[in-house]
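Two proteins follow. First one:
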Amino acid sequence: MNRKLLNKHGTVTADLARSIMALDAGDRLPTIIEMTEAFSVSRGVVQNAIGFLEEEGCIVLSRCGKLGTVLEKVDYKKLYDFTGWNPVVGAMPVPFNDSFRSLAAALHTECRRFPVESSVIYASGAVIRQSMLKKDFLDYIVTSVAAARHIVNADPDVELLFELPDCWYEEPYCLLFIDSAETEIRDGMRVGVDPDTIDQMELTKALCRGKNVELVPMPFESTIEMIHDRSIDCSVIRREKWLHENLALSPRPIPPTDYPAADTTIPAILVNKNNYGIRPFLQKPLSPAGIAEAQSHARDIQSRYSF
């Protein structure tokens, strides 16, 4: 929603609708004073917004004097029309392996809990997903825990919705050399790196710190081709099953660095702080435990992934 196109009454109505989307029938609404402070508007503007949503049949309220105002009934589909949100859209990496496919299936299953239309799209590169989140193209993004913490530390407009400690994001990283005799990055090497992939980029920078190497920008998907073409000498890459079956390649463990390699295997969900009301709205139907259970189920029936 482009908030600049709304007048004060429209903005407050949208924010109020977003707030109520996270409530259940029987919940108490914030007081008028609490809402005037939250929305930085006058009492009359708040009362007009409440009256408008009532007149449109979005909510039925029970006013109980000193006990406050209780949400008696709510029509979420009608209410959603006034939030200014489009259908709820999240993004995660392209599901090209079992871990991503099972996570995609889990999100697809859990997002059915939303009272409105929702979908999950796929975009490679945490930097790209972060940019789409900041531009309001997305309501949430999925990254690794390591990338999520890196983003939050660097970007004050993005915050963690929750980590998913019992879920699986992807295989651990390893170092891949064309020369099977190599075990570590050395001076003079050409090291492939994808600037859009935060985990790979940060691990690579940590491994190359203090060494005289050339960082060669490349799409993450081109790693194997560039190694075989000898365009690069090595790269940081996920330890996928097919690497063990390709005898021409030499994957090596990642030595300890100041970037938490273990946290690159665990997913997390991020939201835009400036997207008012999205955090409580998403937290209502989604939970780490629910997503973990759905992913476990998806991994058990992997021949029938649905996403």
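Second one, unrelated to the first:
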Amino acid sequence: MAVMLHESSLSEAADRLWEELPGHRVEILNGSIVVTPPPDGSHQDVLTWLIEEFASVGTRRAGLRYVAGIGLWLPTGPDDYAVPDFSLVDADYKDALVEKNCYAPHVFHLVLEVTSSNWTNDTATKVDIYARAGIPAYLIADRKHDEVLHYQNPIDGKYPDPVRYKRGQTVPVCVPESVGITLGLSVDTLLDGDD
């Protein structure tokens, strides 16, 4: 779909696209606007299941919140922001509002993306930008390659190589270690949304 844009800034153009394309996710990554179509049912099943899993291990009692689709302000450009599919954040994350419904990176402990049609954004572009933002853990349910990637603990703005998980395996998650929230996430459920 072609949309004519006559805004004076990248941020205004992104806002206009968001208005013109209801249900689409609009992000500014490395100074470029990225538009993702609405998620499919399996994608949404994964997010619902994650909320249930994190609730079952007492995440909220530990002072954290699990949220879907909130903005993460990025240090990669003046207007850059991402909208992760799922995030684990500090309970008081709303105090870290930067602008445009986006929050400072320091309140994010984990982000998770479930790949869609533009899977390279999740498996390449966002690996770099989330590391540069200092996000301690980044999980990718890579439906294109039928695996889950777990990036952790960026050093100097780069993640070490990810741990890769295949079907039939469980991804151990301990985020943040100081809080002691641990759980195992089924690779099959992360990829398919069925439990």
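SUMMARY FIELD: Residues 1-7 have pLDDT under 50 and may be disordered. The longest helix spans residues 41-56.
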